C-alpha cells in the first residue's frame, strides 16, 4: 500500500467556497484519506478508483481540480492527464507520485499537469497545491471572459474594464456630460484625463462644436496668455497678425486646460476674471471679446495643498471645481489591468507582425501584482515591449520588463508565528504610511484623511521616514 499523507497541522487553511475536487486513486484507502481531508476544509471532494471512471465522470460533470495518482491499473495518471489536457484543458491536474525523479516530473508536466506531489506528503502541501490550481483556473477563465468581451467592442483603452472604480467614473460622466458645468478632472499621470475630457465633449450638447486643448505646463506665462486670450497685431515683436485665442476658438464647444495646477499665479488671476466675465481681452487690446465655451480642467497635482501653500488661488480653485471627477489609478482598478493588457495585445500584435493572442496565467499574476506607477500609459508600454520580444502565441513572464517580472509588493507580516518576520511598531507605521501614499497617488490631502492625521503631522512623519519630505511649500504635492 502506498504511504498515506501525514496528518494535517492545526494551521491548515480552509477553502472559502465548496470547490469541486475529483480524487483519482485505485487504492480506496488512500482516496478516502484525501477525500475526507479535503472535505474537512470545505471542498466538495469526490473519489474514483480508476482513470476510466474518472474520465467518464468528467465528461458529464465539471470539477475545479483533479488530483490523481500516477500508478493505476488500466489507464495511468499520465495518460489521464494527457486526455484532460487535450479535451478539458480548463481543468488543472495535480499528479501524486511515489517517484520523485526528474524524469517523472518531466513526464507529468509534459503531459499537461499543473503540479505534482511526491509521496509521502502532508495534507497541507496538497491543500496549498489545490488552492493554487483553483486560483490558476479562475485567472484563466477571467482572461477568457475578458478576451471575449474585448473582441465584441473596441472602446478607448483607458475605458476597458468594469471595475467598481471605473463604474463611478462612467456614472459621473453620464450625469454631467449634457450640462455646461465646469469639470475638474484629477488623477495621476497616465490615467486618461484628456480622454475623459474628450468623452465629456462628445456626449454633450456641444459635441458639434470644437474641442480645444492646451497644456498649461508646456509654455511660459506670456505665451500662455497669448494662446488663451489672443493678441492684437503689434502687441509684441512677433505679433505680425492678430490672433483670437483659444477661448474664442472654443466658442460653441469645449476648452480643455490640462495641467492647470502648473499655471503661473499671474495667469490664474486673469483666468478667474475671464471665467467670471465670460469675456477675454487680447494681449495689447483695449476691448473684450465674449466667448461661449465650456471649461474642463485637469491636473495630477493636489490643488488643495497648492492652495494651502499659496501657489494656487483659492477663488479659482472653487471656480473650476464645480464638478470634481477623480480618476482612479490603475492599481485601484483590479481586474481591469488584465482587460487593458488584452486590449493592447489585440491592437498592437498584428501591426508588429506578431501572432500573439493573449498571455499566460503567470503573466496575469505579475500584471495584477505590479503597482503601475505610470498607470495605463505604462501598461501599454509594457505590453508593446513584451510583444516585441514575444516568441510564442502568448506572452510569457520572460517577455515582461524586469521591474514588472521581478516586482515584490511591500507588506507588513502579521499572521506569522516566526519572530524573525515581525517588525517594530515604528516600521509598521512607516510601511503603512508608504502604502497609503502609494494608494492615493501621493495626494497628501487624501492621505491625511485616510490616516486620520492633520496635515502638519503627516508632513512631519513623511520627513521623519524620508517618504517624500515636509510641508506644502518645500514639497511638490
Q: Residue share in helices?
A: 40-55%
Strand content is 5-15%
Protein structure class: alpha/beta
CATH superfamily of the largest domain: P-loop containing nucleotide triphosphate hydrolases
Largest sheet: 5 strands, parallel
The radius of gyration over CA amounts to 30 Å
From the N-terminal CA to the C-terminal CA, the straight-line distance is 68 Å
- Largest sheet strand order: 2-1-3-4-5
**DSSP, total strands:** 14
Tally of helical runs: 19
The count of domains is: 4
Query: What's the CATH topology name of the largest domain?
Result: Rossmann fold
| Mean pLDDT over all positions | 84
Poorly predicted runs of 5 or more residues:
6-16, 150-155, 469-477
Highest CATH level, the class of the largest domain: Alpha Beta
CATH architecture of the largest domain: 3-Layer(aba) Sandwich
Query: What is the 3D form?
Result: elongated
Spell out the key features of this protein.
477 residues; alpha/beta; Rossmann fold; Helicase, Ruva Protein, domain 3; 5-stranded parallel β-sheet; 19 helices; 14 strands; disordered C terminus
What would your notes on this structure say?
It is a single chain. This protein has 477 residues and is an alpha/beta fold. The chain has 19 helices and 14 strands. The chain has helices spanning 28-40, 51-60, 77-87, 102-110, 123-152, 164-176, 193-202, 221-229, 246-249, 265-277, 303-308, 314-320, 336-348, 361-369, 375-389, 402-405, 425-439, 444-451, 455-464; strands at 20-24, 44-48, 65-69, 93-97, 115-118, 183-186, 211-215, 254-258, 279-280, 289-290, 294-299, 323-326, 358-359, 394-395. The strands form four sheets. Strands 2-1-3-4-5 form a five-stranded parallel beta sheet, sandwiched between helices. Strand 4, helix 4 and strand 5 (115-118) form a beta-alpha-beta unit. The protein is elongated, with a radius of gyration of 30 Å. The termini are far apart. The model is unreliable at 6-16, 150-155 and 469-477 (pLDDT under 50).
Amino acid at each position: 500500500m502506498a504511504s498515506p499523507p501525514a496528518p494535517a497541522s492545526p494551521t491548515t487553511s480552509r477553502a472559502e467556497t465548496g470547490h469541486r475536487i475529483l480524487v483519482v486513486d485505485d487504492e480506496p484507502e488512500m482516496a478516502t484519506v484525501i477525500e475526507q481531508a479535503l472535505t474537512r476544509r470545505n471542498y466538495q471532494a469526490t473519489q474514483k478508483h480508476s482513470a476510466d471512471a474518472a474520465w467518464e465522470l468528467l465528461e458529464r460533470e465539471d470539477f475545479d481540480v483533479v488530483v490523481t495518482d500516477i500508478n493505476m491499473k488500466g489507464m495511468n495518471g499520465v495518460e489521464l492527464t494527457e486526455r484532460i489536457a487535450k479535451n478539458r484543458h480548463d481543468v488543472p491536474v495535480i499528479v501524486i507520485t511515489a517517484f520523485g525523479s526528474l524524469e517523472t516530473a518531466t513526464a507529468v508536466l509534459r503531459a499537461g499537469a499543473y503540479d505534482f506531489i511526491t509521496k509521502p506528503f502532508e495534507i497541507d502541501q496538497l491543500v496549498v497545491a489545490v488552492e493554487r490550481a483553483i486560483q490558476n483556473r479562475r485567472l484563466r477563465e477571467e482572461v477568457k471572459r475578458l478576451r471575449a468581451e474585448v473582441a465584441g467592442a473596441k472602446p478607448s483603452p483607458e475605458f476597458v474594464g468594469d471595475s467598481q472604480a471605473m463604474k463611478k467614473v462612467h456614472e459621473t460622466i453620464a450625469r454631467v456630460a449634457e450640462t455646461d458645468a465646469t469639470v475638474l478632472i484629477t488623477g495621476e499621470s497616465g490615467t486618461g484625463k484628456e480622454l475623459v475630457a474628450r468623452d465629456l465633449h462628445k456626449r454633450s450638447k456641444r459635441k458639434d462644436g470644437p474641442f480645444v486643448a492646451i497644456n498649461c505646463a508646456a509654455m511660459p506665462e506670456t505665451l500662455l496668455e497669448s494662446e488663451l486670450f489672443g493678441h492684437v497685431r503689434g502687441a509684441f515683436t512677433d505679433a505680425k497678425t492678430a490672433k483670437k485665442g483659444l477661448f474664442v476658438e472654443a466658442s460653441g464647444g469645449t476648452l480643455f486646460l490640462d495641467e492647470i495646477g502648473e499655471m503661473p499665479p499671474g495667469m490664474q488671476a486673469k483666468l478667474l476674471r475671464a471665467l467670471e466675465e465670460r469675456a477675454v481681452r487680447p494681449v495689447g487690446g483695449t476691448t473684450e471679446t465674449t466667448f461661449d465655451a465650456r471649461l474642463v480642467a485637469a491636473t495630477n497635482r493636489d490643488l488643495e495643498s497648492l492652495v494651502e501653500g499659496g501657489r494656487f488661488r483659492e477663488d479659482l480653485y472653487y471656480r473650476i471645481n464645480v464638478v470634481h471627477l477623480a480618476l482612479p489609478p490603475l492599481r485601484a482598478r483590479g481586474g481591469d489591468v488584465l482587460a487593458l493588457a488584452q486590449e493592447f495585445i489585440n491592437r498592437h500584435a498584428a501591426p508588429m507582425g506578431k501572432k500573439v493572442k493573449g498571455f499566460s496565467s503567470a503573466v496575469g499574476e505579475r500584471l495584477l501584482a505590479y503597482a503601475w506607477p505610470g498607470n495605463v500609459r505604462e501598461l501599454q508600454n509594457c505590453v508593446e515591449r513584451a510583444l516585441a520580444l514575444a516568441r510564442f502565441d502568448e506572452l510569457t513572464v520572460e517577455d515582461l520588463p524586469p521591474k514588472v517580472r521581478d516586482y515584490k509588493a511591500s507588506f507588513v507580516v502579521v499572521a506569522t508565528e516566526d519572530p524573525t518576520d515581525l517588525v517594530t511598531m515604528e516600521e509598521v507605521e512607516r510601511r503603512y504610511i508608504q502604502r497609503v501614499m502609494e494608494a492615493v497617488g501621493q495626494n497628501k490631502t487624501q492621505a491625511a484623511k485616510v490616516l486620520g492625521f492633520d496635515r502638519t503631522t503627516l508632513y512631519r512623519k513623511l520627513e521623519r521616514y524620508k517618504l517624500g519630505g515636509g510641508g506644502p511649500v518645500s514639497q511638490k504635492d
